[in-house]
Automatic annotation (TrEMBL):
Pfam family, one: Peptidase_M20
Record keyword Phosphoprotein present: no
InterPro entries: Cyt/Met_Dipeptidase, Peptidase_M20, Peptidase_M20_dimer
Family matches, as PANTHER family: BETA-ALA-HIS DIPEPTIDASE, DI- AND TRIPEPTIDASE DUG2-RELATED
Name the UniProt record assigns to this protein: Acetylornithine deacetylase/succinyl-diaminopimelate desuccinylase-like protein
Keywords, comma-separated and alphabetical: Hydrolase, Metal-binding, Protease
Coiled coil: none
Source taxon at top rank: Bacteria
Amino acid sequence: MSLSQISNLIDERKTQYLEQLFKLLRQKSISAQNIGIAECADLLQGMMEEIGISTRQLPTKGHPVVYGEIVRDPEAFTLLIYGHYDVQPPDPLEEWLSPPFEPTIRDGKIYCRGAGDNKGQLMAQVLAVKTYLDVFGELPVNIKLVFEGEEESGSNHLASFVEENKELLKADLVYTSDGPMHDSGAPLVLLGVRGMLYVELTAKGAEWDNHSGNKGNIVPNPAWKLIDLLRTMRDENGRVLIEGFYDNIRQPSEVELELIKNLPFDREQVAKQVGYKDLDMDGETYYRKLTMEPTFNIAGFNSGYGGEGSKTIIPSKATLKMDIRLVVDQDPDDIYEKFYAHVKKHAPDVEVKQLGQMKPSRTPADQEIVKVVTEAVYESYNQVPVLLPSLGGSLPDYVWTKILGLPSIVVPYANFDEANHSPNENIGVNNFLDGIKCTCHVIHKLGEYANHR
């Protein structure tokens, strides 16, 4: 048996595999609104059991985790595959060119909510297990699959689930397929994510809005209070002035710095993608800022009148929302305490709330297992993958690296323009099929690695 038979079988079963994906896509599973979650978990469990994966649903304080496993030898190398079966709400409905829960193929892409994020990639992993078993008869490694139902709502109960099930989830590597491939079209191997702290500041003035002429210079404006506070937090070069903010940041290794230097970068293309034609930086600076440095972002500022025309008032309240992206080894709780202390020192009457957080995570690029997976991805796509030390955004990757202490690698299968979370979300038909093939290659390469370690 050989891996070439994997490709042949995927080609033969293209229609069958697409219909299995379509069946899962048609089942709504909107976690934020608790629509169709139980039905989708049941459907996914049944699909996995039909393949021969021992599957059950495990409860959390929220939506259930669909857990499956094929364990050939408890002492053998174990791969843990993670994904999520929940999706975002489809709104705004009027912007969809076809019904959001009826998979429709146009120009080689499958359009449907969840097609790229994450049902298409999840099913690529599940069908890879079936394909590999049908070609080779058995798996070369143990496989455990963890599919949660709350990722689109913040994975609020994933950490406690992992903490409570450490023995069940014992593994040697965590493998995730989520998000888009590199904007160059090359396959992507991600070794980590930035964390996040989300905070809200509220400043109050008078009990109600006042006339800005009749009470001007008399009643304080809370918007200015927040603006003055912000000036104490950040200098003109963008450096955060909160005491201890940059403590504990793990400096990038020589291997990671070398990776960043060699990553593909097209300034004009990136400028067009983000809608900022004045973007002025080289590739090394771009990737360092995106993956190795924290952010201090104002996500929203609301105060007073913002409608058409004019309304002359002194607002009674001002609210500021910030998302602060964190890098390894910054801790969201530590940063929040420092942020809170800074606010109370400079503006003690401003209210501070923490609205959410996620820890950063990174698997060292020089680990041998990273080389093994990267080689598998290269052999599958016949293209050198882009190896990125960290994603700019945030995923619950820390539950694997921090709680289980495992290396964790993310290999996205969706096309760069998958429009996840947006109307007309999609995944290329070839992206889906290539994802099945890539997972098979990863499984096979890990089997070879396990036999020689």
